[in-house]
Design a protein that fits this description.
Length: about 130
C-alpha cells in the first residue's frame, strides 16, 4: 500500500510514524530506517496479533474501504476476499490486499468487515 509520512512520532526504541493513505491516517511502527517526512513509500503491513472473529473482526455496513485510529486502535474497513482453513485471511481495499491470521468461525467471502488491531507494522519495499 502507498503511504505518505505525515509526522515522526517517536524514534526510540521504535520508529513510530503517523502516515496517510488514500483510505485515511494511522499511527504505526516503521520497520526500517527512519523515513523522510512528506515522502511516499510502498509498504506491506503486518501484525503479530492473531485476530478473533466476533471480537477483532465483525460485519460492517460501510461500502468504502477506510483505515483510521479509534481509541488508540487501528480500524480497517474492507472486503473479505478469503479465509483458508488455517485462518489466513485476505482483505481487499480497492487495488490493495492485506493479510492477517485469524481464529474462530469466519464470515463468508465478499462481505464488508471491520478489523480492530492494537498495533500494525509497515515494511517499506521498492519495485526496483
Amino acid at each position: 500500500m502507498k503511504v505518505k509520512i505525515v509526522n515522526i512520532v517517536s524514534k526510540d526504541p521504535d520508529n513510530i510514524v503517523l502516515c496517510s493513505t488514500e483510505f485515511g491516517e494511522i499511527v504505526l511502527t516503521w520497520k526500517d530506517n527512519i523515513p523522510e517526512k512528506d515522502k511516499e513509500y510502498d509498504v506491506e503491513f503486518d501484525t503479530d496479533n492473531i485476530l478473533k472473529w466476533g471480537d477483532d473482526i465483525s460485519l460492517m455496513e460501510a461500502k468504502e474501504p477506510s483505515i483510521y485510529m479509534e481509541n488508540n486502535e487501528i480500524i480497517i474497513n474492507g472486503i473479505l476476499e478469503s479465509v483458508d482453513e488455517d485462518g489466513f485471511m485476505v482483505v481487499r481495499m480497492k487495488d490493495y490486499i492485506l493479510t492477517f491470521e485469524t481464529q474462530g468461525k469466519a464470515l463468508h467471502n465478499g462481505v464488508n468487515i471491520r478489523i480492530k488491531i492494537p498495533t500494525i507494522e509497515a515494511y517499506p519495499f521498492s519495485y526496483n
